Input
Amino acid sequence: MNGQAIVVGIVAVISLLSGWAFKDIFHRPRPLLPLISGAGGYSFPSGHSLGGFTFSGVIIYLLWRTTIPKYLKWTLSILLVLFAFLIGLSRIYLRVHFASDVMGSLLLTLVWLSISFIFLKAFENRSKRRNAELANERKMFLL
Output
């Protein structure tokens, strides 16, 4: 299986679990008089916003690792950011979350993705160094 697929899965699952954990920690009630029915549970953080920000952040990260032209990377990145913010705005508009719930989701996502990508970069650098060492050992063995 592709290593990036595993990383995406891990990042997504931990994001989802952390959202549930924070809801259980804060027990913040939802706004009164929502425009839609069916929104249950606690309000902080917004799970839909957290998912939208995480999805967009991971796709942007993967997008910038490709060889497609930079103008296309920028265009798609901006569209993905707008997509995530529209999810957050819809949650506020529908009165199922407070603005601070959505902003909290954004902050949690930024922290989580930053930590994830820092560790991923360190792991990739370590793997590259190890592969280079193995290649050097093979060269020496063949000489």
Remarks:
- Residues 3-142 form one domain.
- Residues 67 and 73 are 9 Å apart (CA to CA).
- The mean pLDDT is 89.
